[in-house]
Automatic annotation (TrEMBL):
Cofactor: pyridoxal 5'-phosphate
Record's keyword terms, sorted: Aminotransferase, Pyridoxal phosphate, Transferase
GO molecular function: transaminase activity
Name of the protein in its database record: Aspartate aminotransferase family protein
Organism taxonomic ancestry: Bacteria, Pseudomonadati, Pseudomonadota, Betaproteobacteria, Burkholderiales
Pfam families for this protein: Aminotran_3
Statement: the UniProt record of this protein carries the keyword Membrane: no
Similarity annotation: Belongs to the class-III pyridoxal-phosphate-dependent aminotransferase family.
Gene3D superfamilies for the chain: Aspartate Aminotransferase, domain 1, Type I PLP-dependent aspartate aminotransferase-like (Major domain)
Length: 460
């Protein structure tokens, strides 16, 4: 069956498509993507789209980076698989680790590999638990995450995720996972509350939660520097400074989830650099390999490593790892990806084009359908509203974000509707002209949906 002869309604019925309304989808079928070139992809009918979301916030170098293909082929020929268990290792995993530590926040010094962001965060949870057992604080196990945070879907990381759909009917969250406020001033501010007062309230709430639970029971706090799947929430000024003070006060570890923000997305190499975060544990995935192959990493401080090493000596082994931890082909591609970031100075490129991206994004705030536009670096979102003054969202039956997403796609650009927001996260190699192409199509899509809504209001 060639890709042109695939029927999107009948031939895909054997798949379970994640984050898809499965009932709906059986009638209509998915958009089938066939090939990619630069920041563009083509569907199986040959229509071209600018990928305004880098797939799932991940293909930082676009869809046709030859160096990554060649790195994979070379490693395939040399050694297609070897593991890191039982005192064995492989060269790409060793070289990648040195490279990652060269660019990561300075206090991180050891790396544990897996395949996905979810597994990296699951490992972070297990390491927090193992560490607190090692230092004789077996009670200090609760982990605080945030509402709207997204950390994955496995049992522990799905519990950390603070979105109802990831919990409902899955029997999540598991115990010992707590959720505190989402730092969105737009969604969470009380009437008349200043941004500063809002931020302080959230920091106080976090401290109150810790005190209520007992600081001796709280082991870690996890956060994305900028929330991605929660709707691109950029924290207000002073938020992380206040949070980190509270964590230090109660001796609580800080896990920073850099799965989306890592590798230049926010305008610095890591979200930690942009927001001055000092992680004890940091998870990375996605842009680690520009998503050409699955690989993720949980990075930890030397202090944590030392205690874990001591404890595992006592057990005999450190009994955590997966078959594909540090897979040599994935590691070789990730290593090449970071070399490209360094040689092409991807951070400087983001800093050069991001002001234009943010200017076009913020210009949308005056559109009648937009309540807020927010972003940093090359990530952003617009919040759709039916009433700017009251910030009233559209009823879910209007499917506003889906309509915008589909109209924009008609104009050759893929964006992602998330609840009432439209998210943007293009490949980091995007040019100024392509940023204009993205926003021109987004504007057209928004105008058409507005016209549609106005028409239906008249006809009611
Ligand atoms: C911030 C963040 N953490 C973790 C994950 C989970 O990664 P994966 O889907 O590779 O398991 C995601 C996925 O979108 C993410 O955005």
């Amino acid at each position: 069956m060639s890709s042109e002869t695939l029927s999107s309604t009948t031939d895909v019925k054997n798949l379970v498509h994640p984050y898809t309304n499965l009932g709906d989808h059986l009638n209509k079928g998915p958009m089938i993507i066939d090939r990619g070139e630069g920041i563009y992809i083509y569907d199986n009918h040959g229509k071209r789209y600018l990928e305004g979301m880098s797939g799932l916030w991940c293909t930082s170098l676009g869809f046709s980076e030859e160096r990554l293909v060649n790195a994979a082929i070379a490693q395939f020929k040399k050694l297609p698989y070897y593991h890191l268990f039982n005192s064995r290792s492989n060269t790409p995993a060793i070289e990648l680790s040195a490279k990652l530590l060269e660019i990561a926040p300075k206090n991180l010094s050891k790396i544990l590999y897996a395949n996905s962001g979810s597994e990296a965060n699951d490992a972070a949870v297990k390491l927090v638990w193992f560490y607190h057992n090692a230092i004789g604080k077996p009670e200090k196990k609760k982990i605080i995450s945030r509402l709207r945070g997204y950390h994955g879907v496995t049992v522990a990381s799905g519990s950390l995720t603070g979105l109802p759909a990831n919990h409902l009917h899955f029997d999540l969250p598991i115990d010992r996972i707590l959720h505190t406020d989402c730092p969105s001033y737009y969604h969470g501010a009380e009437s008349g509350e200043s941004e500063e007062a809002f931020t302080q309230r959230l920091i106080n709430n976090l401290e109150q939660l810790i005190l209520k639970e007992g600081p001796e029971t709280v082991g870690a706090f996890i956060a994305e520097p900028v929330m991605g799947a929660g709707g691109v929430i950029v924290p207000p000024e002073g938020y992380f400074e206040g949070v980190q003070k509270v964590l230090k006060k109660y001796d609580i570890l800080f896990i920073v989830d850099e799965v989306i923000c890592g590798f230049g997305r926010t305008g610095m190499m890591f979200g930690c650099d942009t927001f001055n975060l000092q992680p004890d544990i940091m998870s990375v995935a996605k842009a680690l390999s520009s998503s050409y192959l699955p690989i993720s990493a949980t990075m930890i401080s030397q202090a944590i490593y030392d205690k874990i090493a001591e404890q595992s000596d006592e057990v005999g082994v450190f009994a955590h790892g997966v078959t594909y931890s540090g897979h040599p082909i994935c590691a070789a591609v990730a290593l090449e990806t970071i070399k490209i970031y360094q040689e092409d100075n991807i951070v400087a490129h983001v800093q050069e084009v991001a002001p234009h991206f943010q200017k076009r994004l913020h210009a949308l705030a005056s559109h009648p359908l937009v309540g807020e536009s927010r972003g940093i670096g090359l990530i952003g979102a617009i919040e759709l509203t039916q009433d700017k003054a009251s910030k009233k969202p559209f009823d879910s039956s209007v499917k506003i974000e889906k309509r915008v997403q589909e109209n924009v796609a008609k104009h050759g650009v893929l964006v992602r509707g998330i609840r009432n927001a439209i998210a943007l996260c293009p490949p980091l190699i995007i040019t100024i002209e392509q940023i204009d192409e993205l926003f021109d199509s987004l504007e057209k899509g928004l105008d058409e949906v507005l016209e549609d809504i106005e028409k239906s209001a008249v006809s009611v």
